[in-house]
Write a structure and sequence with these properties.
Number of strands: 18
CATH class of the largest domain: Alpha Beta
Oligomer: single chain
CATH topology of the largest domain: Rossmann fold
Radius of gyration: 34 Å
Low-confidence stretches: 411-420, 736-748
CATH superfamily of the largest domain: P-loop containing nucleotide triphosphate hydrolases
Number of helices: 24
Helix content: 40-55%
Distance between the termini: 117 Å
Largest sheet: 6 strands, mixed
CATH architecture of the largest domain: 3-Layer(aba) Sandwich
Strand order of the largest sheet: 13-15-16-17-14-18
Shape: globular
Length: about 750
């Protein structure tokens, strides 16, 4: 009879055997992801994104010794240790960093291995079940498994393919019918139990248990995965240089076992190996990088930062591509989550790629709810299919589940969620806090502004760059600007520029006017001014925008000016740039006016950058109309350049009015036609024609634009006395230069 010790030894042996099987499975899967440098087809010299010379040179120089060590052996016998570096980039740069590593591998003709924990199968190690009598592994109907075998021919599943147990044979047989999540070469339908090409008969020895939803991945499984990863890297490094790129390192920051294992494995790597840890910068978690570096205990030898372009079209293109990549990653993650949920409910759906949302990331719980609602909707409308073991739900049912989740999530919420976390000292700060607009709620960026490239460039240099990169402006002479004045004729886009600045810089936006800071009670106006700057400092970076600033901060030499208004102006300027002002505060005053010559000289002094937003010329008028009409249907005969020549002296607002007038013309034609049909029906004593709920509106054509030009005229004359006075003020004060000696005459 078997003793207790023999049973324990048998259990240990079976556990070791199972762990070896799991580790071998991981090795096979990891080896399949290795790509040679030439196969990547990504070049650092022709990189598909913007790549700064500094980032490129740092990356090449820091990895040269390890990736070229075979050539260096001719001059030295010293074998370099493994290079470990951090590659850090802004949010949304995950795909960018991956492409950068592929380009580096191509540059050195090295292999690359992209490791992502979420992309690996989740295998049970410590919780697999064996029958105590015969030692056989207990597979259960409907259980989730991972294929760990290998077929030499072209048929059969690949190592790592996942599926569910659908067909159990007699106890004496060790073969099991598996319904795999994707089609298998040479697969069957398991006698009608699943879809064609999804079924396959596998041996028990070829299967591993999968960790399903709701179960955490235990440490033994993670350890085997790390062991397999570095074992593959050591093996491949003997044949040539290799780059190991590890993503999502932050997910392991709370597991000390992982860091101990990583430190141990890194010590075993030598020679032509470069390990790159990916790091995504997050303002909400500023200490993450330092924490990760401390956990690795000086194993990281170098840090390389992805540098974005400074300004212009390159910056806009960079942001567009990162935003596109971020949405692509969200869609990919949503597809993975949905597939998990579909497998849980034994559902099949072919349109996941088309139905998945790119705008938001879905949690497992949300995906499970959608699949549950979709299944309920499908069975309610298809009662004859309720007995099927696997249900192929329709797009209509899946859309029903999505709509139900969106309906629940789109309930009205408080706009200012983070403002609850701001400690207010009095009622004045609470009122000011209500006027704070987070950058994501403004909804205007530079892409919405069709011209003013020079002004955009100046704003980027003096506003956005200091707010985004404060570490570059620590010197006494390079301190960020505290005030900017946008002046020019009405309707040229000054307010829109201010909104775009706050959005692009990622700064909170406070729009104030006289009604925001004035009070009927003595002394309260000054307290509102002080509260304004106090709140702006607490939520910095902040842009305080004052539209029509001449009405609030006009010259103080007027005899009709009240003492209350004068005290309020004095308080504003003391808090703006006075003894109480802190040098390191990232608070910017952005003001706009049509009458800069009415401003107080102390106010002008506090705004060293004064930018004229003038009437657009013909090329810029064409750009503005292109931006306004970008979502409209237009006929091919519309020539915006010709319209731009016909609209001399028009402001941006005038051009918008012109486009609105042109857009109404097709609607007027439809209304006129309906009116004529109604009159004809009355004359012929017929029933009145029914008004259709869906009317096809024709595209805008050149005739509509020309007709609108006759109706909408310029609101400002370029030759008026006002424009001459504005240009004279710009010549003396504008452009950020010092004042000239000549005085401006108020009698032109």
């Amino acid at each position: 009879m078997e003793t207790e010790q023999q049973k324990q030894d048998s259990t240990v042996d079976s556990t070791v055997e199972w762990e070896h099987k799991v580790e071998t499975c991981y090795e096979k899967i990891i080896k399949e992801t290795i790509v040679t440098g030439k196969e990547t087809q990504v070049s650092l010299d022709k990189f598909p994104y913007y790549l700064s010379d500094n980032t490129k040179s740092e990356l090449i120089l820091s990895t040269y010794e390890n990736l070229k060590w075979n050539q260096l052996l001719k001059t030295t016998t010293r074998l370099p240790s493994c290079l470990t570096l951090f590659l850090s980039g802004p949010a949304g740069s995950e795909i960018y960093q991956e492409m950068l590593v592929k380009g580096l591998a191509n540059h050195f003709d090295a292999k690359s291995l992209m490791y992502e924990n979420d992309a690996m199968p989740r295998v049970k190690v410590s919780s697999f079940i064996r029958d105590p009598t015969d030692g056989k592994i207990n597979f259960e109907q409907g259980g989730r498994v991972i294929y760990a075998g290998s077929y030499q021919n072209s048929r059969g599943p690949s190592c790592g393919d996942r599926g569910s147990i659908y067909l159990m044979g007699p106890e004496e047989l060790t073969e099991i019918g598996i319904r795999f999540d994707k089609p298998i070469p040479g697969g069957t339908d398991l006698n009608g139990l699943c879809r064609a090409e999804h079924g396959f008969i596998c041996s028990e020895d070829e299967l591993l248990f999968e960790i399903t939803h709701g179960e955490t991945m235990d440490w033994p499984s993670i350890k085997l995965q790390i062991n397999a990863l570095f074992k593959v890297v050591r093996c491949e490094s003997r044949n040539g240089p290799i780059i190991l790129f590890i993503k999502d390192l932050e997910k392991w920051k709370d597991d000390p076992n992982v860091w101990i294992a990583l430190q141990s494995e890194l010590d075993t790597l030598m020679g032509s190996v470069v390990v790159i840890f990916s790091h995504i910068q997050d303002d909400k978690k500023k200490g993450n990088m330092e924490k990760l570096l401390s956990l690795l205990k000086n194993k990281v030898m170098d840090k390389v930062t992805v540098e974005p372009p400074w300004q212009g079209e390159e910056l806009n293109d960079w942001k567009f591509k990162l935003k596109r990549d971020e949405e692509s990653l969200k869609a990919k993650e949503n597809q993975r989550v949905f597939r998990e949920a579909l497998c849980w409910y034994n559902l099949e759906f072919d349109g996941i790629e088309k139905m998945c949302s790119k705008g938001q990331s879905l949690a497992f719980s949300e995906a499970f709810k959608i699949c549950y609602w979709a299944l309920s909707h499908y069975q309610m409308n298809n009662p004859e299919n309720r007995e099927l073991k696997t249900v192929a739900i329709s797009s209509e049912s899946f859309q029903y589940g999505l709509n139900k989740l969106n309906k629940i999530q789109n309930k009205p919420q408080a706009i200012q969620i983070k403002q609850k976390e701001i400690a207010t000292e009095n009622k004045f700060e609470k009122k000011i806090l209500q006027n704070v607009i987070p950058p994501g709620d403004i909804g205007v960026n530079f892409e919405n502004i069709g011209s003013l490239e020079n002004v955009k460039e100046s704003l980027n240099e003096s506003v956005m760059l200091p707010l985004r990169r404060p570490e570059l402006f620590k010197g006494q002479l390079t301190k960020p600007c505290k005030g900017i004045l946008l002046f020019g004729p009405p309707g040229t886009g000054k307010t829109m520029l201010a909104k775009a600045v706050a959005t692009e810089a990622g700064a909170n936006f406070i729009n104030i006017s006289m009604s925001t800071v004035s009070s009927m009670w003595f002394g309260e106006s000054e307290k509102y001014i002080r509260a304004l700057f106090s709140v702006a400092s607490k939520i910095s970076p902040t842009v305080i925008f004052i539209d029509e600033v001449d009405s609030m901060l006009s010259q103080r030499n007027s005899e009709e000016e009240s003492s209350v208004l004068r005290r309020m102006k004095n308080e504003f300027m003391v808090n703006w740039d006075g003894l109480r002002t802190k040098e390191n505060e990232r608070v910017l005053i952005l003001a706009a006016t049509n009458r800069p010559f009415d401003l107080d000289e102390a106010v002008i002094r506090r705004m060293p950058r004064r930018l004229l937003v003038n009437l657009p010329d013909a090329p810029n008028r064409a750009k503005i109309m292109k931006a306004i009409l970008r979502k409209e249907k237009m006929a091919q005969d519309v020539d915006l350049d010709a319209i731009a020549k016909m609209t001399e002296g028009y402001s941006g607002c005038d051009l918008k009015d012109l486009c609105v007038a042109a857009a109404y013309r097709p609607i007027q034609e439809i209304l006129e036609k309906e009116k004529q049909e109604k009159a004809l029906a009355i004359a012929e004593r017929r029933p009145l024609p029914l008004v259709s709920g869906s009317v096809e509106i024709r595209p805008l054509n050149m005739s509509d634009m020309e007709h609108a030009c006759q109706q909408v005229r310029a609101s400002v004359s370029p030759d008026s006395a006002y424009m001459q006075r504005l240009l004279q003020w710009e010549e003396q004060y504008g452009g950020g230069g010092s004042m000239k000696k000549e005085r401006i005459s108020y009698f032109l």
